[in-house]
Amino acid sequence: MAFPNLHHYRSHAGLIMFALACLGGGAVVEATFSETTPDWIVTGVPVVALLAVAVYVFVVFLPQRKVEKALDRNMAQYSRQCGALKIALEELRRGDLVAARRYERDLSDEFRHSMRVAVRAMDGLIGEIQKNSIQVARASVTVHRTASDLASGSSQEAAAVVEITSTMEEVARTAAHIAARASRQAELAGHSEEAGEAGAAAVIRALEGMEAMRGTMDAIAARAEALGKRSREIYGVLELINEIAQETHILSLNAGIEAKAAGELGERFGVVAEEVRRLAERSRESVDSVRRLLDDFSASLRDMVAATDEGRDAASGVLDQARSAAEAIEKLRGALAETAQASQEISLATSEQRSASDQVVTALREISAVVQRTAEGLQELTATADTLDDLGLAIQLLTQSFRLKSPRSLKNVFLGWGEKIAGFAAHGEAARGILDQMIEEHPYVEFAYLVDREGVMVAFAANHNLIGERDLPNEVGVGRVFAERPWFHGVIRDGMSIVTPPYESLVTGQDCFTVAVAVRDYGGEPEGVLGADINVGSWANI
Amino acid sequence: MGGRRCAIPARRVLKVLRRVKLYSFPSGEPAFLGLARFGTEPVAVLDGAVLFDLEDGRGEAGPDPVVVMVSGGRREQPEVFGLLVDEAGRTFAAGGASVNGLDDLTICDPGRLRPDGGE
């Protein structure tokens, strides 16, 4: 609605009325004092003047008064709206979108709509940013964990690669050693093969010699057999001679007996008989002597035959052993040949193995370099994840500077708790119970406390799932004074909800930030401060 | 006989035989060895060592035993029998001279044997 330019209208109307009044007054005076002026002019002018005044009143003054009243009303409304807008904008400046919407009803429709749209847009945007920052934090945690796992795996891989590399190098050295030994073995096998051939030839010669020796022994045995046969024949002859000698002896005895019986006539016969007996005696002695010689010869022959037999047996045994040795040497030659070939194959295989091992070692070194680069990349990734986490936290803290009507808006959440705990500032146990309940519903809070208007701690509660069973420091406890803390000042003095930057917790020694809100009495006056220390490590659970 | 050197009077000796085939059969006489053919007559062959009591029991025969056919027994009733000796030596003239220096010569006279075997 466009306000009419009352001053312009009023000034013009007044001027016209004044001009008419002057004209009318002048006309009346002139008419009165002029005798030539007709009477109707003298009568009409006042009428016209009165008419003008009436017109002025009804056309100008009264509407003007009406308009002025409307104007005053509009101005008042405008002032109220401006005030509400100012307060709303102030609340917006302070980030309290919830409080800003409280003054919407005092705005014009247009402003209300615009304010609502703007606040809704900001609410949505900030809420989206909060949600995304939490997702970023969770993603960074996931990335961090994955990178840590990968880094750990890479470390293990690197250690395994180092171990494998060391093992492969050892294998390569062993392969080289084996190759050298195999080559030497092949060389020795070659020499052994030659020695085996020489040995086989020697054995063959020995066999031939043994065969010849056995043949000789057989010949000796045959000759001994022949000699034995001859000696047996000689024995037979000697036996015959002995027999003849015996018979001759008996004959000579009988002849001697007959000679004795013949008396003197037989004396000469007796002498002959005696000579014959002596001859037979000598024959027997010769036979005995020859027999003794023959016995000795036979004994020697038997010994020789026995020795020859033993020699033949020994030669046969040696021959058999030589044949066995020849077979063994032949087998050994074959085995040596196979060994030589196998040694050459082993030498070749170990050379190839060594080459392959060297290639594997080279590949492992490349893998180790890749793993090292991967580990370095993972370290960078971990650092980036930490940066993302810090960034997410910074964004979250930035968004937490706004109060939204959202369960993720800490100011809004703890202001709600502040309303619950209001009135219990003087009742420590009751306040403790509410703080315990708050921690239970918000497990990311590691420490919650209520201080009174003077900054004295009235009650506190600790989240033992986060701080463990450690003892609380002496600076923390009922009765301690926190009036000098910035968050206390900000709440009590400025009436603002505070979200501090991260700092080191006195309780856990880890990073945390504090959300401090005012606890107001029924009159809206702050009677204390509700504080909640949020562990940085748990902020993604908001 | 019986490992001793013995001498038999030549007048008693009829003949010395070698390789006499003996036909033995059980007899109560310890010296009896068997029968042998002497000419056409069978004669008894006795172990000289047992007969003249030269050793205990019947001994082993020598390597070439001979049978000396002798006539013994009483003069009025001489008998021919054979004496198995280990070895027959030689004849020599007696008269106190030793034979090759051996003084252990035993005189065995078959003529002094009684029919019951004693002398």
Notes on the structure:
The complex is a heterodimer of chains A (542) and B (119). With 542 residues, chain A is of the alpha+beta class. Chain A has helices at 6-33, 39-94, 97-102, 109-262, 267-400, 410-421, 428-441, 464-467, 486-494; strands at 445-452, 457-462, 498-499, 503-504, 511-520, 526-535. In chain A, a hairpin with a 5-residue loop joins strand 5 (511-520) and strand 6. Chain A starts with 5 loop residues before the first helix and ends in a 7-residue tail after the last strand. Chain B is built from 1 helix and 7 strands. Chain B has one helix at 48-51, and strands at 6-7, 13-18, 32-38, 41-47, 66-74, 77-85, 106-107. Chain B has a 5-stranded mixed beta sheet. The mean pLDDT of chain B is 78. Chain B is 3% helix and 35% strand. The interface between A and B is medium-sized, with 16 and 13 residues.
Briefly summarize what is shown.
Helices cover 77% and strands 7% of the residues of chain A. Chain A has nine helices and six strands; from the N terminus they run H-H-H-H-H-H-H-E-E-H-H-E-E-E-E. In chain A, strands 1, 2, 3, 4, 5 and 6 form a six-stranded antiparallel β-sheet that branches.
Shape of chain A: rod-shaped
Number of strands of chain A: 6
Overall mean confidence score, pLDDT of chain B:
78
Low-pLDDT stretches of chain A are none
Proportion of residues in helical segments of chain B: under 10%
Distance between the termini of chain B: 17 Å
Which ranges of chain B are low-confidence, i.e. pLDDT below 50, for 5 or more consecutive residues? none
Distance between the termini of chain A: 48 Å
> Can you list the strand order of the major beta sheet of chain B?
2-5-6-4-3
Radius of gyration of chain A using CA atoms only: 72 Å
Mean pLDDT score of chain A: 82
